[in-house]
Amino acid sequence: MRFLAIIITGLALVAPAAHAFALLNKIGMAKADYFIAQQAYAGWWIVGLLLANIGNAVTLRADGSAMMLSVAAAALIALNLVIFMIFTQPANAATENWTVQPENWESLRTQWEYSHAVNAVVTLLAFCCATLASLR
Questions:
Q1: What does the pLDDT look like over 105-122, one tens digit per residue?
Q2: Which tens digit of pLDDT belongs to each residue from 12-26?
Q3: What is the distance between the alpha carbons of residues 117 and 66, in angstroms, rounded to a whole number?
Q4: What is the rounded distance in angstroms from the CA atom of residue 44 to the CA atom of residue 56?
Q5: 130 and 1 Cβ atoms separated by less than 8 Å
Q6: Gyration radius (Cα) of the chain, Å
Q7: Residue 53 CB partners (closer than 8 Å, separation 6+)
Q8: pLDDT above 50 for 47
Q9: Do 8 and 49 form a contact (C-beta atoms < 8 A)?
């Protein structure tokens, strides 16, 4: 369970980190180029990691510190999902997953890009917590 929590949380870090690393290159793109670039992300989603970290917490319940680190990892993943639902998903919906170009596309781009950058940090912290919990 410990290994699974680390691997799944680490894999979840890939997408937000990719978004964060691409932000500086994409934030100034022209409208047409940005909408083309956005199609590279079709189909990305977080799978099962909240449950993996909760399972890790249950497995590590005899070690209070390790259990709390696992709970923190699960809470950070939940925060990631909240940020996604409040900031990222509305931009996806307004642009129909970046296939429609509304008038306010630039503000939607900013909202989408920075929500992913914040989620990269949140997910990195979750990965650190899951790893530290599993190493204890």
A1: 999 999 999 999 999 999
A2: 787 788 888 889 999
A3: 27
A4: 24
A5: no
A6: 17
A7: 5, 9, 70, 71, 73, 74, 77, 126, 130
A8: no
A9: yes
